[in-house]
Amino acid sequence: MNTESSLPLSGRTALVTGAGSGMGAAVAAHLAALGASVAALGRREDRLAAVAAASADSDAAGRILVVPADIISESEVAAAIAQIHRELGSVDLLVNAAGVMLPNPLADGRADEWDRMIDTNLTGLLRVTRAVLPDLLDGTGPRDIVNISSIAAHVVFPDYAVYAATKAAVTALSAMQRTEVARHGVRVTNVEPGLTSTELGTHIENERLGAELAAMFDAIEAISADDVADLVDFVVTRPAHVNLRQVVVLPTQQA
Fold first, then answer.
1. Model-level pTM?
2. Which of 14, 76, 151, 171: disulfide with 69, CB 3.0–4.6 Å?
3. Alpha helices in the chain (DSSP H)
4. Could you tell me the sign of the dihedral formed by the alpha carbons of 180, 184, 186, 189, in that order?
5. Around Cβ 79, how many Cβ atoms within 10 Å?
6. Which pLDDT tens digit goes with each residue over 225-245?
7. Could you tell me which residues are beta bridge partners of residue 148?
8. Helix, strand, or coil here: 240?
């Protein structure tokens, strides 16, 4: 029996952004365990290498290719896609997991944080998606775009306005993408996690907001990056004619 060929994602090639940590790292590992060849893209090459090494140690059937690149750079994304094509071939599964969360009151006017969130969470996602669309549109069989948004897209969190705006844009973009690519057999899924245990919260410089988030983690058993990756596994292993278009996943205690 050929175990590798019997795995649900055997023969598929995935690109996962933000793969150096958190949800992106978990998704990359899960997809490789299901047999996919995975391009793990992120800014921190050492983190990507650790994800690839851990996957290799677990005897995952699929290969993880380390692809260091910053999605806010047009030239780095172009070079990354060229590397993926050389080493893995065409991409038929894209998971846009890269993101940053830098909350602050609007009155603080942190334009540097606004730019970083917009450039990563929205423009970077668009840049990567555009780069692999030719692969997705020209392919056959199951093909997927999975965008990791947030419940902040439609749930009000004071002082998270710009982060929430970027995630609302991702949610809207996912619906609009679907109108363009569904007729070509490409599925688009928007995933909106609630409170999730990742390093995202450690980037918050505002001490008050950092303490408030820490208190939420103390009060609620958060979902994990692996929980989100399990959900992505389910989404992309449905029959090709089935598209789970919108999935909201929350900790049980987060009503």
1. 0.94
2. 76
3. 3-6, 22-33, 45-57, 74-87, 111-117, 125-138, 161-181, 207-219, 225-236
4. positive
5. 14
6. 999 999 999 999 999 999 999
7. 191
8. coil
